[in-house]
Amino acid sequence: MTHATITHQAEPCNREPARCAGDDITPLEQVFLRNNHPAPTLAPDTWQLRIDGLVARALTLDYGALRRYPLHYVASVLECAGNHRAAFAAAGQPADGVPWRGGAVANVIWGGVAVADLFDDAGVAAAALQAECHSGADFARGVEVAALREQGMLALYANGVPLPAHLGGPVRLVVPGWYAINAVKWLSRMTVIDHESASPYNQQSYVLYDETGTPYGKVRELQVKSLITSQHHRAGWQDIRGVAWSDGSPIRRVSVAIDDEPWRDALLHAPAGRYAWRGWSLRVAIGPGRHRLRCRATDAAGRTQPDRARSNLRGYLMNACVSYDIDVR
User: Fold this and answer.
1) Which of 23, 235, 239, 265 has its CA 20 to 30 A from that of 13?
2) What is the rounded CA–CA span in Å between residue 222 and residue 72?
3) Is the pLDDT of residue 1 over 80?
4) Nearest alpha-carbon partner for 3 in 106, 78, 72, 99
5) What CATH number should be reported for the domain holding residue 265?
């Protein structure tokens, strides 16, 4: 089956599905592509990873050596920090960057090696703050050592198959519960440092700037969010379905509003894991005409999607309740 996609840029490729399908696990051919540089050509038999910096023992690992570590599996949401950036513009708050429409999110089963195992073997210093993760000729992103130790993984597999090259294979970093900029593709080096990385991908990009250009935060953990994934065209009883996620804090409630009617609580489906999205559904009757659907999620930490997300010059962390206008016959 051919799935409609939106290509925002051909090279480096930035592409999203026209609509998030909401499958329990996203098929790999429907996973969005977000690239800050052209994809390198790497093969498992030539790939190597260097771990150096503030370590007792620098490590150089090839693909075979990495596979000798215990394998772990985790289902987790992968979301671009700019997902739904186009919604800022629609609300009168234009922002710089790829105008993602909402398809830059996926739920994938990753298989790989715990970063904690590698850090233990390397003897990472207690003073370590970040690991500067390198990819391609000049890309580097500093990621917090604490998060890498707790949930970081070097993924070799996605949905049970070897990690495809276009998704960062043969090996990429995955940090469940954090935005995708931290899930560095085509990983080649991790340099442990005791300060924040000076990389432009830490100091200029993926920084939250208010309307005056003053920084007030950085892109790290996922925000609580939900989407409607079902489509509705015919009047009568039907199921509104969708997905919801957060930074690892469990989803406790999803509510749905139709036009100006009160919010109604949806049925939460069984959780698929701490970092996976959670399905939900609500059976309702919808009459003919034009209607507006909205959904909002609340997690166990008490965080609820806002009606309006805080604007920022680069259009990150758009987690406001998304409206869906439908024509029902």
Assistant:
1) 23
2) 22
3) no
4) 106
5) 2.60.40.650
